[in-house]
């Protein structure tokens, strides 16, 4: 496939933080394919299988986790990247890695860590993604982290746009390996951010309906959703309700993907290099104005009816309590840490507290629940609601 002139080129990558000795043969891969493979083979990526997407440690086998969500984001991202002539491997790697910094229990866990770390620089899952990939995940003998390409790390740092005030974690990493935080990232990174929106906007509908937290009649209050669902009813009069709902989710994804492709292609017309993308004064990958309004309306609906559902808020409150109690327990009694983490515990603040946060942020939902039971004598109640 011939890349568009504004695509990121793996042969022109800005390199890696540490020089590598690549004696021997490990396959004919581009730099961005190496990035993707290192992410897929990492322990941090595997742990996403048991981290909250919408529901905490769900008992049902069919609900999404951070891992299945990331895979779905990657597939949407690849489709958009291919249509626009972008580098699919970089796009896929960005999509697969974008949530690696999430602690257990999703944003509830993040809120608890942010509160615990408020006087020590705070906690942010986006910056922690970079910290995990550049320092904490360390399977190689020659260097810390996964030593991913500059292009991949830049995209993760700025997939939501330029960063004017990085927190301590991102600032520390940027000082070691400057990521040009004030500029826009590649189109591959911008597409990855939109693929994330498209995936969770639609797949969270599926999970919310499955759990009974959303009702179809409520969803049909949104005019764009209602029009699409009525068209599906006319097209498939004998289909079951479940089949129609799945068709609704698929068709919504298709509409949004096509809209992004058309809008972004028009916005990027006349650009001749990835350098011009980064120097552009604004975002290039985007929804059209009409689709953007629909997407914002859907997000508002999902926050009101699903993410801020009373049962969800109650579970989130209990999850925050679990993370807060774990942090306090390790702070007061570091011997509760596993031996390898205890041996590496810094003596001084803020590094000491950040060490606790690193350990907790790497936990899966179930591991955090087990740790709480081991330390306090009983497992927390009321975390699972599906």
TrEMBL record:
GO MF, one example: dGTPase activity
PROSITE patterns per record: HD
Keywords: Hydrolase
SUPFAM superfamilies linked to this entry: HD-domain/PDEase-like (SSF109604)
Keyword Lyase: no
Biased composition annotated in UniProt, kind: Basic and acidic residues: 14-33
GO terms classed as biological process: dGTP catabolic process
Cross-referenced InterPro entries: dGTPase (IPR006261), dGTPase-like (IPR050135), dNTPase_2 (IPR023023), HD/PDEase_dom (IPR003607), HD_domain (IPR006674), PHydrolase_assoc_dom (IPR026875)
Domain HD: 66-201
SMART domains in alphabetical order: HDc
Region called Disordered, residue ranges: 1-33
CDD domains: HDc
Family under the similarity heading: Belongs to the dGTPase family. Type 2 subfamily.
HAMAP family in the cross-refs: dGTPase_type2
Protein's recorded name: Deoxyguanosinetriphosphate triphosphohydrolase-like protein
Organism: Tsuneonella litorea
């Amino acid at each position: 496939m011939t890349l568009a002139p504004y695509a990121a080129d793996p042969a022109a990558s800005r390199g890696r933080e540490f020089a590598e000795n690549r004696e021997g043969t490990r396959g004919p891969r581009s730099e961005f394919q190496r990035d993707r493979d290192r992410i897929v083979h990492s322990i941090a990526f595997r742990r996403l299988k048991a981290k909250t997407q919408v529901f905490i440690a769900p008992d049902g086998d069919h609900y999404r986790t951070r891992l299945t969500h990331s895979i779905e984001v990657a597939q949407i991202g690849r489709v958009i990247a291919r249509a626009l002539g972008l580098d699919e491997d970089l796009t896929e790697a960005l999509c697969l890695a974008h949530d690696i910094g999430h602690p257990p229990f999703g944003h509830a866990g993040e809120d608890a860590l942010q509160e615990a770390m408020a006087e020590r620089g705070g906690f942010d899952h986006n910056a922690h993604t970079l910290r995990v990939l550049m320092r904490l995940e360390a399977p190689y003998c020659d260097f810390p982290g996964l030593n991913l390409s500059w292009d991949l790390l830049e995209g993760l740092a700025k997939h939501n746009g330029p960063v004017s005030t990085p927190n301590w974690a991102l600032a520390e990493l940027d000082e070691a390996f400057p990521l040009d935080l004030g500029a826009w990232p590649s189109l591959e990174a911008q597409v990855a951010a939109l693929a994330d929106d498209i995936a969770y906007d639609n797949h969270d509908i599926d999970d919310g309906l499955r759990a009974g937290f959303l009702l179809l009649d409520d969803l049909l209050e949104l005019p764009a959703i209602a029009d699409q669902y009525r068209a599906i009813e006319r097209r498939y009069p004998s289909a079951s309700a479940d089949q129609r709902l799945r068709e609704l989710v698929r068709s919504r994804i298709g509409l949004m993907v096509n809209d992004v492709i058309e809008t972004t292609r028009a916005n990027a017309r006349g650009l001749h290099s990835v350098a011009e993308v980064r120097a552009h004064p604004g975002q290039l990958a985007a929804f059209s104005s009409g689709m953007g309004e629909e997407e914002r309306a859907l997000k508002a609906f999902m926050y009101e009816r699903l993410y801020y559902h009373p049962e969800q808020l109650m579970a989130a409150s209990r999850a925050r309590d679990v993370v807060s109690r774990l942090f306090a327990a390790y702070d007061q009694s570091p011997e509760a840490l596993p031996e390898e983490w205890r041996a590496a515990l810094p003596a001084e603040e803020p590094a000491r507290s950040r060490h606790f946060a690193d350990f907790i942020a790497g936990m899966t939902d179930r591991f955090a629940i087990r740790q709480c039971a081991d330390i306090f004598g009983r497992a927390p109640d009321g975390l699972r609601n599906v």
